[in-house]
Amino acid sequence: MPKAARKGFTLIELVLVLFVIGIASALAVGILYRSMDNIRLKTSAKELSASLRYARSHAVAEKKIYSFVMNKNGYGLYTEQYDKSDTDYEKTSLVFQKILPQGIIAEYQEIEDIRIDFYPQGDSTGGEIKLKNEKGSVMVITVEKITGKVKIEK
Prior knowledge:
By secondary structure, this protein is an alpha+beta fold. It has a single domain (13-153), classed as minor pseudopilin epsh fold (3-Layer(bab) Sandwich). 34% of the residues lie in helices and 30% in strands. It is built from one helix and eight strands, in the order H-E-E-E-E-E-E-E-E. The protein has a four-stranded antiparallel β-sheet, with helices on one face. Strands 4-6-7-8 form a four-stranded antiparallel β-sheet, covered by helices on one side. Strand 1 and strand 2 form a beta hairpin. The protein starts with 10 loop residues before the first helix and ends with a strand.
């Protein structure tokens, strides 16, 4: 058959191209799957730090004490419910509660739950929370005492 009459690809060429595409896809999926743990850790750290910043900004704006409470499974944000006619100012109200994603573990120095209070002046009780994934990667969320500023570090 003359070269000019030959059009298209042979079956071997098509199978070879499909095989190469299959190998490349398998490698890409494997890499993405392994990095999902780190993505989940970063997302959890950003969500937690956003919750802490929310607590600080609302404490200042509403002139109330906001308390961030965390245990090994999740965290919640509470605000004081102070009524001037009521002498019991220890009452609290749940603002929101969130469970940590599967595979993310909270580590902190306290034996029980960690509690960080944010005051109307912008300061806080301060603290440090470490989030860890199953692979051992750690992200540290720090709340400064004097300024109430929230930082994320790897």
